[in-house]
């Protein structure tokens, strides 16, 4: 890695591995080349493993972003007039609500003050008040750094006869998620986050019950978002034969196979590899939090159990504003400003997902850049003590 280049430490796109960068740099293959068909088939199989999903679940790889995957879920799971409960923890919960409203769905917005998540009791109440077809939640809301208890929410949905759908765009392959064990119906993401690819792919895995919901719709979704149109294409490639609806993003699918394989090949079984990856993200996040505490930086999430492992959302200290971001970059790390409209100018965000969670030197370099940037703008920052605090956590025995 070139040390002169600042590290990309925003909450997506993120630093990618050399293996993925090499795969993404190939000459674009044809979508019917035997080698591409094999790559697509292997990527689909690997997707199920990375999602810890059941063998009967349906993986989808479609050119697009997280927004496309969200809209596909909103329009394939519900008919106009049906009811959905949205656990809303920020900007992306608001987006899902708007998509559902445009579909004509009756929405119940279960939200909490900035930096908090609604209690399970509040969600239970909303589900019990009137039958809901689907419970939506953002696993990690990138605007607040708040993580919900996805296992508990999936269980609540099941208890009330509802499907569950999780926006994992800032979580998938970084935060623990066991789709089959938890009985979660849809888990969706985009390629540029913890999965560790360039932007450009929408990825999701749907349970048989979710596919059944699509089959039972009266009002089909628009054609290019329709799971029923895409499903035979995915099935064909998984069976190692090509099929056409819209040209796949061949280079990105090629890189996807490389990236997912790299994740899965690191342990004896796919499950062990995923548990190890989740533990690596947990350790990296604890190291960053230890450093932030030394620097006097306070997180947006109001309780420790709400803090995501994939990013830190941090209030600017007294007297500091977005001007510090340029100083942090000058010291070697690109971090992001705020996103939530209620507090946009008052906080900043540092991503820590994917490959960097395995590279203590990159994490320490990021801590150092943030600390030096803060010192430049007059915030008392003990740079070495912050780096030491992070280093101490990172020196724990191997994660996993
Ligand atoms: N959901 C969440 C939680 C996100 O972080 C993002 C992207 N920041 C999206 C959805 C939308 O993804 P995309 O920008 O790829 O459309």
What's this entry about, in short?
With 400 residues, the chain is α/β, with parallel strands linked by helices.
Word description of this protein:
- The chain is an alpha/beta fold and 400 residues long.
- It is globular, with a radius of gyration of 21 Å.
- The chain starts with 6 loop residues before the first strand and ends in a 6-residue tail after the last helix.
- The protein binds 4'-deoxy-4'-aminopyridoxal-5'-phosphate.
Summary tags:
400 residues, alpha/beta, seven-stranded mixed β-sheet, three-stranded antiparallel β-sheet, 15% strand, globular, binds 4'-deoxy-4'-aminopyridoxal-5'-phosphate
- Overall spatial form: globular
What is the average per-residue confidence, as pLDDT, rounded to a whole number?
A: 97
Percent in helix? 40-55%
Number of H/I helices: 14
Bound molecules: 4'-deoxy-4'-aminopyridoxal-5'-phosphate
Oligomeric form of this entry?
Answer: single chain
Record field, number of beta strands? 14
Question: SSE string, helix = H, strand = E?
Answer: EHHEHEHEHEEEHEHEEHHHHEHEEEHH
Strand portion, in percent?
5-15%
Radius of gyration, CA atoms, in whole angstroms: 21 Å
Spans of at least 5 consecutive residues whose pLDDT stays below 50 are: none
Category from helices, strands and their pairing: alpha/beta
Please give the largest β-sheet: 7 strands, mixed
Secondary structure: elements and pairs:
Elements: E1 7-8, H1 18-24, H2 34-50, E2 58-63, H3 66-77, E3 83-88, H4 91-102, E4 106-111, H5 120-129, E5 134-138, E6 140-141, E7 146-147, H6 150-159, E8 163-167, H7 179-182, E9 186-190, E10 201-206, H8 208-215, H9 227-238, H10 250-264, H11 270-294, E11 311-315, H12 323-330, E12 333-334, E13 336-337, E14 347-351, H13 360-376, H14 383-394
Parallel strand pairs: 1-12, 3-4, 3-5, 5-8, 8-9
Antiparallel strand pairs: 2-10, 6-7, 9-10, 11-14, 13-14
Helix pairs in contact: 1-10, 2-9, 2-10, 5-6, 11-14, 12-13, 13-14
Bound molecules: 4'-deoxy-4'-aminopyridoxal-5'-phosphate.
